Amino acid sequence: MYILVINAGSSSLKYQLFDMPLDKPLCTGLIERIGTNEAFIRHKILTVDPTQTIERQEAIADHSAGLQQMVELLSDAEIGLIHSADDIKAVGHRVVHGGERFANATLITPAVKETIKDLFPLAPLHNPINYQCIEIAEKTFPNARQIAVFDTAFHQTMPEYAFRYAIPESLYTDEGIRVYGFHGTSHKYVSEKAAAWLGKPDAKLISIHLGNGCSITAVQNGKSLDTSMGFSPLAGLVMGTRSGDIDPSVIFHLIAKGYSADAVNNLLNKQSGMQGLTGLNDMRDIRKALEAGNQAAALALDIYAYRIQKYIGSYAAVLNGLDALIFTAGVGENDSAMREQICANLDFLAVYLDSDKNRVATGDVREVNRSDSAVKILVIPTNEELEIAQQSFDLLETA
Ligand code: ADP
């Protein structure tokens, strides 16, 4: 069954085509700088050896034009993988915000679309673009089922004492102000892999997703109990350009100093985190700066690791025990020095990293703890697209 997965951002579009239940995509694609004359497309075909990559730069006015390019590449007479759009049986959409309405992958109906629309105020940057891509995909693939997989869904299992803020109840009931959490598809994917690796379905896990955005989740019995992102993805860990946790009074102080609300929003989301501390947001560049003796980079890495350690301690308490730490996403999977720094001071939990394994280990699930560590330390590559394809496939199989 051909399932196309679409992950749309404000100016980008990522897609993967799966032939489910096979877990390797047939092709992957990325379109960047949509809305400009210099949009960039990279379309990789993985069914041939060596893989074939088509790259080109051209004007792409909007997401609709981007999806059209994708369909042309997918059904190209020479390099195409499908004959026509009708070969696609389902399109799985990553939708950022599902509010309290969606705890699972959901078949998209007019009512579901209305609910996604109702949630625009909670995710003003993401849900409108997700909605738009659903509408385009409905037209482009009229015979396919459209399925939404929400970033927030996995965290709907959090208990109320974890997801409520200590503010007047009406703000929760009338305005929906509560912790939602994000990166749920990734946390679900890696925590299921970890539980399978441990052979323990009720494992107590801390899943640490360190990409451009970063979040950490306490998982037990396959359920999210608490997570570091909150009402929005701004809360929690130090990220590429987001501050993570900060005293809300800082916002009022800046506004009193003459900043507009928009300026503070931009400051905390786009100019903070590693970017604010070092002038760089890419961890590889920050590592290079560290090697060159940059003191700001050294301090920023200390702050980044320290914040994660605080959350590990806190979530070990939430779980009242710990079977494994999971590292995933760009930094979590690749930055062995960061894993080393985070695990260095966790002796009280009997977390002991094996430095050699940590540096060299490869594979789908990498165990990088010492044999005497009470807690496993696992490096597990995340794969949100595959998770979306699997959830879409399972939904159709059981429907
Ligand atoms: P996104 O959240 O956009 O999906 P990724 O999961 O791809 O992001 O993670 C991007 C981050 O991973 C960047 O900060 C990048 O520098 C970092 N990263 C990727 N490879 C490495 C590496 N080898 N060492 C350190 N950091 C890395």
Automatic annotation (TrEMBL):
Cofactor note: Mg(2+). Can also accept Mn(2+).
SUPFAM superfamilies: Actin-like ATPase domain (SSF53067)
Cross-referenced CDD domains: ASKHA_NBD_AcK_PK
Residues the UniProt record annotates as site (Transition state stabilizer): 183, 242
Keyword Cytoplasm (UniProt): yes
Subcellular location per the Swiss-Prot or TrEMBL entry: Cytoplasm
Catalytic activity: acetate + ATP = acetyl phosphate + ADP
Binding-site residues, substrate: 94
InterPro entries, per the entry: Ac/propionate_kinase, Aliphatic_acid_kin_short-chain, Aliphatic_acid_kinase_CS, ATPase_NBD
Entry binding sites for Mg(2+): 7, 384
Job description of the protein: Catalyzes the formation of acetyl phosphate from acetate and ATP. Can also catalyze the reverse reaction.
Family assignment from sequence similarity: Belongs to the acetokinase family.
Protein name: Acetate kinase
Lineage: Bacteria, Pseudomonadati, Bacteroidota, Cytophagia, Cytophagales
